[in-house]
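Obj: model holo form, ligand = nicotinamide-adenine-dinucleotide.
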Amino acid sequence: MMRIGLAGCGLIGSVHAYALQQLAENGLVEAELASTFDTDRERAERVARSHGGRAVGSLDELLDGVDVVWICTWTAGHLEAVEAAAERGLPVFCEKPLAPTLDLCERAAAALERVPHQVGLVLRWSPVFAEMGRIIESGRYGRPLATIMRDDQYFPIQGMYGSTWRAEASLAGGGTLIEHSIHDIDVLRWLLGDPVSVSASTAATFGHAGIENVAALTLAYEGGSTATLVSVWHQILSRESSRRLEVFCEDALLFTEDDYLGPLHIQTSDGLEIVEGRRPSGSPPSRFPRSSGTPSPTTPRRARRSSTTLPPAAARRGGIRRRRRPWQHTAWWMPRTAPRRPAGPRLPMLGEPGAPARCGGRVPRC
Ligand SMILES: NC(=O)c1ccc[n+]([C@@H]2O[C@H](COP(=O)([O-])OP(=O)(O)OC[C@H]3O[C@@H](n4cnc5c(N)ncnc54)[C@H](O)[C@@H]3O)[C@@H](O)[C@H]2O)c1
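Output (holo structure tokens):
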């Protein structure tokens, strides 16, 4: 049984603890959460109570008793834990970004090179982007000409991202670009390769020094292809993290409004094809089950079990099996005008009375 140690038991640490527990309980991995550590002891204890293991009082104690470490502290805490784990030869999962500055990232990367490791850049595993990647790589619709990406999220020091460190440049490294659009740059590099030039403009309009919340980038590629990325942190609390990606190839426009299952839209001279992504049967659920009130990563065990049953075949399997996702292709024509949704009531702004402590209780999107 592989013993996993979790350093950093906040939002994403709890998500990982929950996911690991689901994988283990359903027989998909032979691993257990053995120890948790957080500089806020109460958080470590809460995660251990809900997802297994025991809370320990220091990073050293954590690393001494585990086979693998998950590093989910805020960004400025990653390097110390990465270096200590690599020193002991322990495999590491480290959340993105590796560190707040380029120098520190390079130090972390050098340490990680010495051990098996993975960094939490998740979008390459998203079915819709994977399908887009396959189509672009096949050349079926010609070369990519122009790519447009929009990434938006409410300023993540509120709602489900109730963290203060994301407004501190020394702890986070910056704003929407490093904290959120690091995922977008990863996907763009993966889909289109490395650009030959990049230009950007940024602004920090909410008054947090060094924390840009508006960014526009233009990336130019060999052969004349371009990509633009607009990344924004706003105060629209009803919008969870969301992305739109459009890739104009020579013979088709590929686009999606959802960064996980899609659907992927493919518009050609023949019309519009909509490719629905399906969650693989047997995969653990990606959303927290809803209990009464606000769902949370630390929902009590009974409530979690009752709403996250996996098919028996999945429960019987002894390990993770990679499967090719089945894609359902449905060709249809879109109506000229889509029905308009009525405008909702104005939500309280950042710092105003009535702003919700948690927003919608949804699982965080990367
Ligand atoms: N891959 C993704 O999609 C994704 C999503 C969310 C967050 N993240 C990343 O995960 C990290 C954590 O984000 P979060 O939302 O969970 O933040 P959070 O504020 O909810 O949790 C961070 C936790 O780390 C603890 N901590 C800080 N320094 C520590 C240290 N030296 N040792 C032990 N514990 C320490 C804090 O007490 C806190 O409990 C960040 O780097 C963030 O960028 C990645």
